[in-house]
Amino acid sequence: MDTSKMRDLKALAVTCLPHQPLRFMRSHGALYIRNDSGIVFDVHQNRSFPELMAQNKDYAEFALACTPDTVLALFAEIDRLERKNANQAESIREYQDLTVGGDVSLGMLKADLRVTTGERDELKAENEALRTGQAIKRLSSDEVREAFNGAYYQSRDNGSDGEQCRAGVLAVIEAATAQAVSND
Fold first, then answer.
1. Which of 43, 78, 113, 160 has the fewest CB atoms below 10 angstroms from its CB?
2. DSSP 21
3. Does the residue 73 lie in any domain?
4. Domain-located, residue 7
5. How far apart are CA 71 and CA 172, in angstroms?
6. What strands lie across the sheet with 30-35, from one edge to the other?
7. What confidence score (pLDDT) does residue 74 get?
């Protein structure tokens, strides 16, 4: 559609917004489209030509369906789709510049993907470490003392040295932490 016609149609719709809505009215075998101010359209019902009568009724129904709100909603949808299309076209141009222009090879794109995947994995690990740290903070001092004493005395009773005792304590703390995390 011609841009000036679209602009004119939109202006007409805006002008008609405050006006009363139209409706059908039958009178003496004739069909009118009107509002409270008077007849806007006279829909001729020529009984001699039934195909014209049906055609006129179709046009009348179409005219009633084209309310200012409907026309403005269609223009808003056209604008939205044009913006979306422009964004997609820009993305396609950027992609073509990368692939056709030779600035970026497929290998470089794969390398970027690997870096991104690595960053994602690092963030997951950090998140898990934070979650574990929060679980340790929730352990009460009695739970920590009990875990330490159990690991220390069990290791000592078995004749273990200090490093084995430390490893045992850490294992018990990890088990308690895992239990606290699973209770979340």
1. 113
2. P
3. no
4. no
5. 71
6. 23-27, 30-35, 38-43
7. 93
Q: What is the mean pLDDT of the chain?
A: 75
CA distances from 17 to 20, 39, 40, 78, 80 (A): 8, 18, 16, 19, 21
Does an H or E element contain 30, and which?
Answer: strand 30-35
* Residue 166, domain extent: 109-183
Cα angle 31-32-38, degrees, rounded to a multiple of 5: 155
CA angle 32/38/39 to nearest 5° reads: 25
* pLDDT over threshold 90, residue 167: no
Helices (H), 35-105: 50-65, 68-99
pLDDT in tens, 72-129: 999 999 998 888 888 887 777 777 666 665 555 666 667 777 778 878 888 888 777 7
- Report d(CA 164, CA 151) in Å as an integer: 10
Q: Is residue 104 part of a domain?
A: no
- Please give the pLDDT value at position 10: 92
Residues 6+ apart with CB under 8 A from 144: 173, 176
Spatial distance between the Cα atoms of 35 and 21, rounded to a whole number of angstroms: 6
Question: Quick one: pLDDT band at residue 181, thresholds 50, 70, 90?
Answer: low
- What is the tally of structural domains in the chain? 1
| 161 is a domain residue | yes
Strand spans (E) along 51-181: none
